[in-house]
Amino acid sequence: MTTNPTLFPSSIKQWPTTLLLLILLVLVLASPTAQARRTGVYDSNFETVRSMLQQPEAQMDFAVIKLTVDKILDPSIDKAAVLKQLGDMAGEVRAAFPLGASNLAKFKVLRDYLYQPPLLSARLPYVYNLEDDRNPSAKLLSVYLRTHKGNCVSMPILFVILGQKLGIPVTLVKAPAHIYVKFKGDNGQWYGVETTSGGGWADDEWQKKQFPSLTADALASGIYLQPLTKKETVAVIAEPLLDKYESDRSADGEEARVKLALLLVDHYPKDVVAMVHAYFGYLGLRQHLFVEKYPQPSDIPVNMRPRYEQIESGWAYWGTKAKALGYRPPTPAMEAAYRERIRLARTAKQ
Questions:
Q1: d(CA 342, CA 127)
Q2: Taking the C-alpha atoms of 176, 179, 185 and 187 in order, what is their torsion angle to the nearest 10 degrees?
Q3: DSSP letters for 107-142
Q4: Residues 234-280 pLDDT 10s
Q5: Which are the contacts of 85, defined by CB distance < 8 A and separation ≥ 6?
Q6: SS3 of the chain: helix, strand, coil, percent, to 5
Q7: CA–CA separation, 259 vs 281, rounded Å?
Q8: 3-state class of 96 per DSSP?
């Protein structure tokens, strides 16, 4: 196909190729077709998560669910290969169970397999990523399995995935900006397990000391330190999609963020992470759709005011709801304390 030379200035031939490609990319992304495509992807992702949440709990396979979410985040992931790896790992752990092993004995075998492999096994232990723990890729199961370095998302989720395959009663538990595991002992009691530090025991009192934002209201409402159901666990596994939509920094992304957050809260009513995303998602929509276009609320066209009021009501509601349940946002002092713990752990490792 020939290009009509009158469509471009004569100097266009002198422009760098990368600049031309960038301009074309911007034009494509700004087109109605590209916008419709993005919206279609968001809608497809939403339906995928909804179908997983609507499964009977007996059919919920955490490995499949986690890798389905991870593949949305990174389409290059070989889902079948990782599923096979997880199956092989479970088989190795199962082969090490003593005859007639109790749940506690099975739990200890799994813990040692992950964090204290025998020297002669040539296997590396799975450890916390002290160098790059906030990298979104650290949440991906495939990255954790390949590097043996994870964070407080990938590490507890792997433990629970293998626990499900092995019939060990373990589940996810939330603390402020943190996920860990609880194991149900043979006596019926739940025991906290900190997968980010070698699977050590971590009871509720220990967790309370680690998180200053863990308020009395938060404990009373049950948004933290409670063993999660299978459905609630699926909601937690899907939460990284909310971060992805936030990073898109677009009105479509914020719309998808709010829609998914409300779906997660519908299935996990105490999902304060989703509530906070709903709050900020509505604020993002307010910014993109109204603040950037209309200097004053009175400038908003009459036909758009119901949408503006709906968004105003949305962010106010979810902010108030999260606060009422005891949620407190992290402060700079809390972040500094966390980074200091990371620094000390890194120093001790050297």
A1: 13
A2: 20
A3: HHHHHHHHH---GGGTPPPPEE-SSSTT-GGGG-HH
A4: 999 999 999 999 999 999 999 999 999 999 999 999 999 999 999 99
A5: 145
A6: 65, 5, 25
A7: 9
A8: coil
Half-sphere exposure of 73 (CA within 13 A, CB side): 27
Chain centroid, CA 14 distance in Å: 45
Q: What is the pLDDT of residue 250?
A: 96
149 C-beta neighbours (distance < 10 Å), count: 20
Query: What pLDDT does 31 receive?
Result: 59
Task: Determine how β-strand 127-128 pairs with β-strand 149-150.
Answer: parallel
pLDDT at residue 182, rounded to an integer: 98
The DSSP output letter for 149 is E
Model pLDDT, residue 249 = 94
pLDDT digits (tens, 9 = 90+) for 173-187: 999 999 999 999 999
List the structure tokens of 51.
């179908």
Q: Under DSSP, is residue 337 helix (H, G, I), strand (E, B) or coil?
A: helix
- 290/299 Cα distance (integer angstroms): 9
d(CA 183, CA 160): 10
Is the pTM value of this prediction over 0.90?
A: no
List, for the chain, all residue ranges whose pLDDT scores fall below the cut of 70.
Answer: 1-32, 34, 350
Tell the residue number behind the tokens 């979104």, with chain if given.
136
Give which of 236, 260, 245 is closest to 175, Cα–Cα: 236
Report the Cα 129 to chain-centroid distance in Å.
Answer: 16
Would you state the structure tokens that stand for residue 76, as one six-digit string?
A: 């290059």
For the chain, the residue count is: 350
Residue corresponding to tokens 């499964």: 55
Using alpha carbons only, how large is the chain's radius of gyration in Å? 24
